[in-house]
Amino acid sequence: MIRVEMLSTGDEVLHGQIVDTNAAWLADVLFQHGLPMTSRSTVGDAMTSLVEALQSRSQIADVLIVNGGLGPTSDDLSAQAAADASGSELVIQQAWLEKMEAWFASRGRVMAPSNRKQAEIPAIAEMLDNPVGTACGFAMQLNRCWIFFTPGVPSEFKVMVEQEIIPRLKARFELPEPPLCLRLTTFGRGESDIAAELEPLPLPEGVVMGYRSSMPIIEIKLTGPASQHVAMEQVWQQVKLLLAECTIFEGTEGLPALLARELQQLGCQLALSEQFTAGLLNWQLAAADVALSKAEILPQQDEDLEAQVARTRDWAKQQGAALALSVGNLVEGEVSIALHTPEASWGQRVKFTHGRHNVETRQKVVAMMAMNMLRRWLHGSEVSTGHGWIDVLETVKR
User: Which of 111, 194, 226, 287, by CA, is between 20 and 30 Å from 46?
Assistant: First the structure.
């Protein structure tokens, strides 16, 4: 088993000032290539701490991917720490320096002297290309470990991992067959409720059931060796049957992307009208390239469910759209959502049963409820349904 670790650097990561999205992305990529990440650690911008981390992890890991600290400023210490940890010296990569100078010149700028350090790597290291940024990466052997140093900028980091690091790992190691991971995402049921229903299912040897809660959704994962794929598929069919009513998509596609694909297949456009969600629904659907005819954000106003359903129907006709979704105002924990389709118009008024969630979370939940109404209609299911800790107070169909 190849032991692959990640070392994230930077005070802003260590102290939680930014979310380390690179770590989650890397873990997923490594998993897909049969290299599950063994462990991950974080160290701040202190030379002593960086050198100690490199020396200690290099005694344990086979591969260590170091992220961050290759910039031009005084707190970017990774290259010097690598040199100190290995007893090496920094040397300038002349070809990279010239590439950097040309990059700045092409934009009508003069490269600052501080950028020069981005072309310096330990003498024992191999340079890694960075086609989308100014900091080159590098790889070197320290003790038993092959260490890769990468920039912290996500777009640069991802390209370097995919184009420089993964090919090198495949060339050096005989990688195991990637594990199989089956996923589906649910909405409207609690994690403990779902777990109570799924945990009695017998799992094949080496197969694990996992849950990831990220309000307002819960992802279910069945993970195991590829050799167990037949047995896993049998269990997975039972999982899908048990969770059919609350499943909103399978795999990693995402609900907005699913709606975009299915609306494109139907050749339908969607009109939106939002009050409480304040454009969140529009943003989520537009980001997935859903065919939107028109979207509006209205000031919050009093309106009964019947009036909102009629307004949603009229809004679709005004915009020449086959479909329309609307979100009303939030009043005393209650909000209404309406859907117009060529078949009929539906509305539901719901109430949050407790007040522990903030406005942002409630907006996300309501946006998901609206999208789920559309998904359920597209799939021929009952449009209005319960949502766990959200009570349905009133429904309308016209």
Answer: 111
**Residues constituting the chain:** 398
Distance (Å, rounded) from C-alpha 398 to C-alpha 396? 7
pTM (predicted TM-score): 0.74
Helix 359-378 with 255-266: angle, nearest 10 deg: 30
- Most confident listed range (27-41, 77-91, 342-356): 77-91
Give the model confidence (pLDDT) of 182-201 as tens digits: 999 999 888 889 999 999 99
Q: Which residues of 334-371 are buried (b: 16+ CB within 10 A; e: fewer)?
A: ebbbbbbbeeebbbbbbebeeeeeeeeebbbbbbbbbb
Return the amino acid letter for 92.
I
Please state, in angstroms and rounded to a whole number, the distance separating the CA atoms of residues 398 and 376.
17
Cα 341 to the center of its chain, rounded Å: 31
Q: Which 8-state DSSP code applies to residue 279? A: T
Write out the DSSP string of 149-190. EE-SSHHHHHHHIIIIIHHHHHHHS-PPPPPEEEEEEEESS-
Cα separation, 232 vs 240, whole angstroms: 12
List the one residue out of 182, 198, 178 whose CA is nearest residue 190. 198
Give the residue from 19, 13, 20 showing the smallest Cα distance to 37.
20
3-state secondary structure of 47: helix
Phi, psi of 152 (to 5 degrees): -80, -20
pLDDT band (50, 70, 90) for residue 385: confident
Confidence tier at 355 by pLDDT (50, 70, 90): low
Sign of CA dihedral 24, 25, 28, 31: negative
Question: Two tokens at 393?
Answer: 């107070």
CA distance 38 to 213: 22
Residue 65 CA to residue 33 CA, distance in Å, equals 15
Q: How far apart are CA 156 and CA 295, in angstroms?
A: 35
Say how far apart CA 223 and CA 184 lie, in whole Å: 12
